[in-house]
Request: fold
Amino acid sequence: MLFGVTMFPTDYSIGVVELGRATEEHGFESLFVPEHTHIPTSRRSPWPGGPELPREYAHTLDPFVSLAAVAAVTSRLRIGTGICLVVERDPIITAKEVASLDQLSGGRFLFGIGGGWNYEEMENHGTEPVTRWKLLRERVLAMKQIWTETKAEYHGDFVNFDPIFQWPKPVQQPHPPIIVGGSGPRTFDRILEYGDEWMPIPGRSSRPLGEDIAELNRRAAEAGRGPIPVSIFGAKSEPAAIEEHARAGVGRCVFRLPSEPADVVLPLLAEYAEAARRFG
Reply:
């Protein structure tokens, strides 16, 4: 079992550099940060986590800038987006950012992606919510072309460009792991077409996690693929919960940290590290 943590880095919480150093020093495998370019004042789109949208959503730092800062002060810690809102990003620019961060970190980047839940936010980027999954698919496929081909081109309904050159290429080959978030009815289709791993949030599926993982791996085997790695995003740190995840086939537990100052975050980080050590 691998163990990681996630936190919204903000302008009022513990600095992301301090957090990155402490996360590596405590022996964690990974640190994930989320993405929201902004939060519209409209609350038309309900937050999946509850009735009130937490403060940190409107205050979060850019994930690629944050992770680059963490990469500069760590040497072993894997750094990931949890998740990157590809539907709000130009694919050519994002391909450059992913490859650059993978280069600067020595091949430590994990590319968590998702379609998002905030319709007003994506609409401000010119994305229609009803077609966002088709858009995400084409942008990911286009980025894979850029990462793996000397002369890359892509021609789709939403993404269209003639042959281009773009370097650097990622250190990880053929590219950093694409970790698909979500638990919707088409999530497994997306993983099997253009993803490498799955990252669900507990409680978002109608079935027990073990059944979902078994179904995913059955479909992967039918497609000629091996078992799909699974990370639980927002895992509980109690021993029984970790054991349950391990039995279900989870390979990485990612614990959630609050967007608070260091005197709140660091003791909790130490508590999570102790839970990981007890399991190990």
